[in-house]
Amino acid sequence: MTFSTFKQLLSQPGTSAEFIGLVEHLLDLRPEADLGFVDAAGHAVELEEVHYRIQGQAAWQATLYNRAMNHIR
Known about the structure:
The protein is 62% helix and 11% strand. The chain has helices spanning 3-11, 16-27, 47-55, 58-72; strands at residues 30-32, 36-38, 44-45. The longest helix has 15 residues, at 58-72.
């Protein structure tokens, strides 16, 4: 999934809650304002890094992709 699609899913009202929750679950991150996330220590994690981490794990990437396809269909 491209970064722009990932960002769009996180920002659209119809999909944002589900995908933000998925990021929280997969990466143990907490959402912050303006599509930001922080780790358990409170350090900011850039959205590009969040996307990179998910793309680096095939199972996580598949989960994200399958959920996205459910919304597109």
